[in-house]
Amino acid sequence: MTKFKKILAVVLAGAMLMAFAACGDKNSSSETESKNDTQSAATEAGDSATTDEPAGEPKYATAGKLTMATNASFPPYEYYENEQIIGIDAEVAALIADKLGVELEIKDMEFGSIIGAVQTGAVDIGMAGMTVTEDRLKTIDFTDSYATAVQVIIVKEDSEIASADDLEGKTVGVQENTTGDIYATDDLGEGNVKRYNKGNDAVAALASGVVDAVIIDNEPAKSFVAANDGLKILDTSYADEQYAIAVSKDNKGLTEAINKALSELKEDGSLDKIVEKYIPAE
Ligand code: GLN
Questions:
Q1: How far apart are CA 220 and CA 104, in angstroms?
Q2: How far is the C-alpha of 245 from the C-alpha of 25, rounded, in Å?
Q3: Best of 111, 114, 182, 203 to mutate for ligand 1, by most ligand atoms within 8 A of CB?
Q4: For 167-219, how does the pLDDT look when each residue is reduced to its tens digit (9 = 90+)?
Q5: Which amino acid residue places its CA nearest to atom 10 of ligand 1?
Q6: Which residues on neighbouring strands pair with residue 67, listed in sequence order?
Q7: Which of 205, 208, 247, 267 can bridge 255 by disulfide, Cβ–Cβ 3.0-4.6 Å?
Q8: Could you report the per-residue pLDDT of 128-159, keeping only the tens digit for each?
Q9: How many whole angstroms separate alpha carbon 78 and alpha carbon 90?
Q10: Torsion, CA 238, CA 242, CA 245, CA 249, rounded to 10
């Protein structure tokens, strides 16, 4: 059992208690996210629209449009091809917009700006391979999950780092404000983490020897490693996560409508079809 797995086992045991504490007093719960968050949060995300109050009609920032915030440097979920944002999230969002009877508009921004944009209602949804966490659920709602992901460790092919335990005392590159950033900072300490705007910049820093490893989501990791010589993904997962769509807490009607659309897309195989298009089975 790695050190990180041990930590996970311990925090999982406390997850229920923390969830209760969070209900009782929002301010008393810790500001720090930990790996257990995604486990319990994922369950909670599915419940977000099933409150006693009627959800009401979806509200839109711009009438007739579903405005989606993303960070289009996260292949295969969202990235540019010929000046157009494509990827799993972009295609799933387009099908959701279709079902809602509105047009999809995608706004590209820094990953760290997405939740704020959703919260203030500047955009309707945040869809960016975004992991459900307890901390994020304090400020926004999440729809049901539409994908699972794993945080992985990328190193140079000849690296002496072979597991999460070996990261201690090393410098790790992450994409700012992502769960990789949060976990690395929690586990290794502020001084051992270098933050980059884009995952690819963190990977470039690894390739040029500025950092010793990168912690990032598995699918972008595969794509970044394929594009850079001499790197590999370690065969140990750092954390398991659920991706979902962020919606304002003031827009329960939209969360509910998206959940309905998502369940139809899961049921009729459309979601799987999009995933297979971008992530061909190995
Ligand atoms: N899944 C990670 C997170 O939610 C990274 C997402 C991203 O970089 N687009 O923090």
A1: 24
A2: 25
A3: 111
A4: 999 999 999 999 999 999 999 999 999 999 999 999 999 999 999 999 999 99
A5: 178
A6: 105
A7: 247
A8: 999 999 999 999 999 999 999 999 999 999 99
A9: 6
A10: -100
Residue 148: both structure tokens together: 């699972």
3-state secondary structure of 114: helix
Q: Note the Cα 88 to chain centre separation in Å.
A: 13
φ/ψ (deg, to 5) at 32: -85, 135
pLDDT digits (tens, 9 = 90+) for 222-238: 999 999 999 999 998 78
CA distance linking residue 3 with residue 165, whole number of Å: 6
Distance from residue 152's CA to the centre of ligand 1 (Å): 12
191, 185 in Cβ contact below 8 A?
A: no
Q: How far is the CA of 198 from the centre of ligand 1 (A)?
A: 10
Here the tokens at position 178 are: 């992502």
**Best CA proximity match to 71, nearest among 217, 233, 239:** 217
CA of 54 to the centre of ligand 1 (A): 31
User: Angle between the 88-100 and 270-278 helix axes, to the nearest 10 degrees?
Assistant: 160
Q: Which amino acid is at 203?
A: V
Rounded-to-integer distance, Cα 198 and Cα 257, Å:
31
Using alpha carbons, list the distances in angstroms from residue 102 to 64, 68, 107, 259, 261. Answer: 5, 12, 16, 16, 13
Span 228-277, pLDDT tens digits: 999 999 998 788 999 999 999 999 999 999 999 999 999 999 999 999 99
